[in-house]
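subagent[fold] <- orchestrator: predict structure for attached chain, return tokens only, no commentary.
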Amino acid sequence: MSEKRLKRQIIKKKLFTKNRLVILNEDTFEEIFSLRLTLMNVFVFATSGTILIIFVTTFIIAFTPLREYIPGYASSKLRKDATELALKSDSLTNALKKNEAYQQSIIKVLNGDLEYEKVNKDSILASDVSQVNPEKVEASKPELVLRKQVEAEEKRIREASKTQGKAELSGAKNKKKK
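subagent[fold] -> orchestrator:
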């Protein structure tokens, strides 16, 4: 234990021993500058200077436009523009999808695949566009039975209206003759 204490005392003595730094003119040996220092003072001064340089450099990089030259940092204007462009591209993509759905429905109407009364721009824009393969969609047995019943009823109504129309025409002819 005394060896440790002895080492500590030696280190303490070296750290706090006063030394003199003198700057002389070599030709005349005139003293230009003189400074009394200890090793501890030099260590504290060097550490403080290093920390000060680090803080000043960090401040300059963080709070000036110089930070834009460091990879990974972007200017605030560039970030703002990128965000605005992303929002615009999203809205344009959505508008393009809606217009394509509307054009597809118009094409169906022009080809006769869809009735005109069923085409409404607002309903097309509100609905999700999903493509259904007509080959995969098959009618169930109850659906087929219902379709046959509806077709038969429509046929009966058409025939009744034709006969009624003929009767009205013949009645109108009879009135003209009288």
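orchestrator: received. Logging for downstream: Helices lie at 2-16, 39-63, 76-111, 121-126, 141-177. Strands lie at 19-24, 31-37.
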